[in-house]
What does this fold into?
Amino acid sequence: MTLEEAYTQGKKILEEAGIGDAGLDALYILMEVCRIDKAYYLAHGNDEVKVTCEDSRENDYFALVRRRAEHIPLQHILGYTEFMGLRFNVSSDVLIPRQDTETLVEEALKHLHDGMKILDMCTGSGCILISLLNYSNDCTGVGADISAEALKVAEGNYRALLSGRNDTDCSFVLSDLYENIEGRFDLIISNPPYIRTDVIGTLAPEVKDHDPFIALDGGQSGLEFYKKITDGLDDHLIPGGTVLFEIGYDQGDDVSAMLKDKGYIDVKVIKDYSGNDRVAMGVRSCLTD
It folds into this structure.
């Protein structure tokens, strides 16, 4: 069987299973199993799989395709995903980083200066904090999460991506929000759980069945974590510091109102590349202590 034939059959299996990106997923799995890139596939599609890979790889490929046909996320099958140009390891213990969240990181980078201290609340895989540290200089960070298993993933990603740099310092803390957080920060950022409890059951199987429930569930209103984090901001954010939240498409007004009620200034909502509200942010007034 050639690479192209394997890909075509894999794509068909995924299409019949109702996988939206069947062709792309089949190709990613083939490249991973055969340890090739897209350029190699395009140039050598007529090569026999057994020539390109070990003899068993053809069976490995279709085994993974069948797993994807069961709506197991591609990222869990591969064990990693790309985010902000970096490769992050993921597992069922963390929310899979999504492209929408890159809007949050890109906006935060506009307000991040050398030497700042960052707190990433509900850090999960660590993708937000690690990306900010990677694209800045001499910054330090703390990633907080209630899940010890998630923190193991985040720590592994930090070691893989940034441990060799001398200008970054990062720690991960097991904490129920601010419970074990000490000190104040220049920037607080969070992608908290924000899906309404009654909506989670309607999400795609890849999300509702495989992302951690605690990373999705924002309570009956979807706003519970925004309120809890906002209520504690003044104890952990310096005057003049910036807070940024990822939000759902219909939560901009509510989260903005929370920040304004706390006296935050320059409150605004930023849209993602699809035109949906994605980030709510504000600045703590310098008139407060």
Notes: The beta strands are 80-83, 86-89, 117-121, 140-145, 169-174, 185-190, 237-246, 265-271, 277-283.
